[in-house]
Task: structure prediction
Amino acid sequence: MTPSINAPDFDLAATVECGQAFRWSRSADGWWTGIVNGSVRRVRQTGDRLEGDFEVRYFSLDLDLRSIVATFPEDEPLRLAVRKHWGLRILRQEPWETLASFIASSTKQIVQIRQIVELLAQRLGRDGAFPDVETMARAELPALLKCKLGFRAKYLQSAARMIDSGQVRLMDLAGWEYERALEELQKISGVGEKIANCTLLFGCGFHQAFPVDVWVERSIKRLYFPRRRVTPRQLREFTRSHFGPYAGWAQQYLFYAERMRQAPPEHLTTRRDGR
DNA sequence: CTCCAGGTGGCGC
DNA sequence: GCGCCACATGGA
Result:
């Protein structure tokens, strides 16, 4: 019989579908299948019961969601997003796969990011696992282009090479100060503030990292700065000061709520008419 | 066919 | 700093 635990304050579907991970999919029978740290995992949630091949740490089930949300500012927009998607948790993912996935993400739709990550795993990885840094560092550009990376191929290749050669110390970042870790990642060409923050939040345990993409920017402008001009400088200042020590978690609630406002419920497909 | 996508680097101001 | 543009590729 499969192992199971009581997992209160947890929404498996929201957690794996909110845009932070790209290798989970749901079967008709309600089971989710994902590849975590190179191995296949099958998980199902029924009410508060979580069963299957789960890892408590990966799903951040060792953290108390109520305590985290208690650190959020008392504002209505965030309160609504949290209520709507209660149980969404930030995953603890592998740093390299996280960085690589988000390098692949720039100006791509989520369905296409999933496709690129899958192609990289199938063509370059072992047994469907995401290719490690060394493998990616040795990969030639044409091989990466076949994975539909387009202009991102050279960025991914140089990222792998900088990490493999020790110029960027990806595996050490978790123990560093946030600002220093952010700067370290931005030494990589093709990695700016947004991708660096995604990597720190989803892959390196920095709860305060606050990625600002087009959806979050739209959300924040609409909810917090209606009919006002906001410069990039002001936006950055706001996202770093307003949301507290778990700002990244707040960001994910805002991101997912904004996506769900415009997308059909179960798939993160896009509409382009803005309504 | 046209438009656009979890951005970034390089450019001119 | 800020605003603009190119950058590959595929889905709508």
Q: What stands out?
A: The CA atoms of residues 103 and 156 of chain A lie 6 Å apart. Strands of chain A lie at 4-6, 24-26, 32-36, 39-46, 49-52. Residues 106-109, 111-112, 115, 145, 148-153, 231-233, 269-272 of chain A lie near DNA strand C (CB under 10 Å from a C1').
